């Protein structure tokens, strides 16, 4: 028996490996199984070259759990090692500047394992002792056994072993005995090893018999050695892609379509990406892409490794150019990973464009499930945005789809305003905004449906890029003002008239912490609605964006500002105004007269102050002016209260306001009940 010390300052190495346990608990089994797969593949390669004459048809890796002995054994019938090779690859850990590197990276075992292939030593994360029993494929080789208990000392002795290959026996420590559970080993193997290129056997298959699971004589192979992404696209049918998706995501909905990646220059990259149906609420899991290196699972947390918007996709990416054992921060800064990310970005855009060109009808049928993904890409990746303009679609209220270029041609002539801006009218909810949509269509306008959570951000992006185009929601103004063709010539009420009429209708607007109402008066024609509620395009869009991104609380916390537009040309509005004149005519004249007199007195005092410095004005004049202003405020308030009192008692005024609220989905609960009862009274 030979004894010795491992050729590196192991007092540093083993504590670091132990610490690594806390960052990735179960990675040891991936490392040991991956090494066994490599050894098996190497022997098959040598056999193919005629350098090994033994039988390699039953090449496999076997994982065995012995709960009584408290061991996990990984066995392969691969290339094996001689005693000299054990010395070289296990004992010496021969790399330049090892001790200096360990000192520098002693807090990042992931970097150590990744840079220097120390995957074997990850076994010590869970083991109090590790045995390696190995026999080289070389003719006449003597089998040897290497043992180490996690200290720098090891033992190496000759043993008997019939078959070529290696057994790694891990004696699991007491604190890690959770790894001695069958379900835990199955979970780890299924996570990391289910697509390895060599059969991995774990126990026997089980069948249900007499109400319980019993073992059969058939080996339980846990992996698919030739998954779909390793094959050529020409060799796969649609059903093959669907079956593979079901294998990846047994509980997932059917994907829309897929992209098969197959690149061998300037780097190696294979994979299949699937487009899932993304709901409008944008609640998606971003850990659905699985990253592999030569069919060995690396991670399913790919943010920063692939473009942000591609994290919405599902599927597999495999590249030997992706380092297997490094932290995600290292992956994000790796030059190969950046090139791969950029290439995938382009391939996804090219594939979408090709699908659009090949079968536009099918593409349109999937658009509603696809648009969130494309919009997210356009907002987050400028290169993708430029490519996406070839297949990005706009959908109108007639359920017709248009490219950006097609839609501009459709609306440019009829929907260009007096300032030569093309106006894109849109609705966010065709049912709630039905009246506004219909009025716009009756004017010959086309209306888009922009109803998803990213639409406000996309609208802003388009308006910044195309400064001669504006997006206007159909309920942001009365239809006559949505697209102003020329300056209005209709006679408007004076400011004083609006001041007198506003309290009448303000008094019947509902009190709400969620909404404030600004009353305005416009001549909309006697055939239009008596009252219309509109929403400020700017404020509403800011609030929508605030809700979508959880920020901009200055806007998000403000109540909705609604405009109550009173149509002064409508017969019912005129009827209320006539009733106001009959009821309050003489009283208002008297109050208005007093207000006018008061204003005249104030003007006289103000005129007397002209040309004088503040200290030159007599105190009596200052007191008089203050008294006059106070009395004026009281007179004006009394007039407003008189008008508001009339408004509150006028059922027709209240009915018209409630009709406008009803058309906007804002009349609910007790107010809706009162409206119904009042409607019955007015009909009688």
Note the topology:
Elements: E1 2-5, H1 10-20, H2 27-48, E2 61-66, E3 71-76, H3 83-91, H4 98-104, H5 109-116, E4 127-135, E5 144-148, E6 153-158, E7 165-172, H6 182-192, E8 200-209, E9 212-221, H7 238-248, E10 257-263, E11 269-275, E12 289-293, E13 296-299, E14 314-318, H8 328-333, H9 335-358, H10 360-365, H11 367-380, H12 382-388, E15 393-395, E16 401-403, H13 404-411, E17 422-427, H14 434-442, E18 447-449, H15 455-465, E19 469-473, H16 479-482, H17 495-506, E20 515-522, E21 531-535, H18 537-549, H19 553-556, E22 560-567, H20 571-609, H21 619-649, H22 651-663, H23 669-683
Parallel strand pairs: 2-8, 12-14, 17-18, 17-19, 20-22
Antiparallel strand pairs: 1-6, 2-3, 3-7, 4-5, 4-7, 5-6, 8-9, 10-11, 11-14, 12-13, 15-16, 21-22
Organism: Draconibacterium halophilum
GO molecular function: ATP binding; ATP hydrolysis activity; ATP-dependent protein folding chaperone; unfolded protein binding
Binding site for ATP: 31, 35, 76, 81, 96-97, 166, 328
Description:
- The protein is of the alpha+beta class and 684 residues long.
- The chain has 4 domains: 2-221, Heat Shock Protein 90 (2-Layer Sandwich); 228-365, Ribosomal Protein S5, domain 2 (2-Layer Sandwich), CATH 3.30.230; 392-482, Rossmann fold, CATH 3.40.50; 497-609 and 620-683, no CATH class.
- Strand 15 (393-395) and strand 16 (401-403) form a beta hairpin.
- Helix 17 (495-506) crosses helix 21 (619-649) and helix 20 packs antiparallel against helix 21.
- Mean pLDDT is 83; it is low at 94-102, 108-117 and 551-556.
């Amino acid at each position: 028996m030979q004894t010795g010390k491992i050729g590196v300052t192991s007092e540093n190495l083993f504590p670091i490996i132990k610490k690594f346990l806390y960052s990735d608990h179960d990675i040891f089994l991936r490392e040991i199984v991956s090494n066994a797969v490599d050894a098996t593949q190497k022997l098959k390669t040598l056999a193919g070259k005629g350098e090994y004459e033994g039988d390699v048809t039953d090449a496999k890796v076997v994982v065995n759990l012995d709960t009584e002995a408290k061991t996990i054994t990984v066995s392969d019938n691969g290339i094996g090692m001689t005693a000299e090779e054990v010395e070289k690859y296990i004992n010496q850990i021969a790399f330049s500047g090892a001790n200096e590197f360990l000192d520098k990276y002693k807090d990042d075992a992931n970097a150590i394992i990744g840079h220097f292939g120390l995957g074997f030593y990850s076994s010590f994360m869970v083991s109090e002792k590790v045995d390696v029993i190995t026999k080289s494929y070389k003719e006449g080789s003597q089998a040897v056994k290497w043992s180490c208990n996690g200290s720098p000392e090891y033992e190496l002795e000759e043993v008997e072993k019939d078959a070529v290959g290696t057994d790694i026996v891990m004696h699991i420590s007491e604190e890690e005995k959770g790894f001695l559970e069958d379900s835990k080993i199955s979970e780890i193997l299924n996570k990391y090893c289910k697509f390895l290129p060599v059969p991995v056997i774990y126990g026997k298959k089980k069948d249900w018999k007499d109400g319980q699971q019993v073992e059969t004589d058939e080996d339980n192979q846990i992996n698919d050695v030739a998954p779909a992404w390793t094959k050529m696209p020409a060799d796969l049918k649609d059903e093959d892609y669907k079956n593979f998706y079901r294998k990846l995501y047994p509980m997932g909905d059917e994907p829309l379509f897929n992209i098969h990646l197959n690149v061998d220059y300037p780097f190696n990259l294979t994979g299949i990406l699937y487009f899932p149906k993304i709901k409008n609420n944008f609640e998606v899991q971003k850990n659905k892409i699985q990253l592999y290196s030569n069919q060995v699972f690396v991670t399913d947390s790919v943010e920063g490794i692939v473009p942000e918007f591609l994290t919405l996709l599902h599927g597999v990416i495999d590249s030997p150019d992706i380092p297997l054992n490094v932290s995600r921060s290292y992956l994000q800064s790796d030059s190969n990973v950046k090139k791969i990310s950029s290439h995938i970005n382009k391939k996804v855009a090219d594939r979408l464009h090709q699908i659009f060109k090949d079968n536009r009808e099918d593409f349109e049928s999937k658009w509603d499930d696809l648009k969130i993904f494309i919009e997210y890409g356009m907002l987050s990746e400028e290169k993708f945005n430029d490519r996406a303009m070839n297949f990005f679609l706009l959908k109108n209220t007639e359920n017709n789809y248009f490219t950006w270029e097609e839609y501009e041609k459709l609306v440019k002539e009829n929907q260009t305003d007096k300032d030569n801006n093309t106006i894109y009218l849109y609705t966010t909810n065709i049912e709630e905004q039905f009246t506004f949509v219909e009025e716009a269509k009756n004017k010959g306008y086309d209306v888009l449906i922009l109803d998803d959570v990213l639409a406000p951000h996309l609208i802003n992006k388009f308006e910044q890029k195309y400064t001669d185009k504006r997006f206007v929601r159909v309920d942001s103004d009365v239809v006559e003002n949505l697209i102003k063709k020329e300056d209005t010539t209709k006679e408007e009420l004076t400011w004083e008239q609006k001041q007198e009429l506003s309290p009448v209708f303000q008094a019947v607007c509902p009190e709400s912490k969620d909404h404030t109402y600004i009353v305005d008066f416009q001549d909309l024609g006697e055939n239009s609605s008596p009252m219309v509620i509109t929403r400020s395009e700017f404020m509403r869009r800011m609030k929508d964006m605030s809700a979508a991104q959880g920020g901009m609380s200055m806007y998000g916390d403000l109540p909705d500002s609604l405009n109550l537009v009173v149509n002064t040309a409508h017969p019912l509005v005129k009827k209320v105004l006539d009733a106001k004149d009959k009821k309050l005519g003489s009283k208002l004249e008297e109050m208005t007269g007093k207000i006018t007199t008061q204003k005249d007195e104030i003007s006289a005092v103000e005129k007397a102050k002209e040309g004088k410095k503040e200290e030159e004005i007599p105190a009596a004049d200052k007191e008089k002016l203050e008294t006059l202003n106070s009395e004026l405020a009281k007179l004006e308030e009394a007039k407003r209260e008189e008008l508001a009192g009339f408004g509150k008692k006028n059922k027709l005024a209240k009915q018209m306001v409630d009709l406008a609220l009803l058309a906007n989905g804002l009349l609910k609960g007790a107010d809706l009940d009162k409206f119904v009862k009042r409607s019955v009274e007015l009909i009688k």
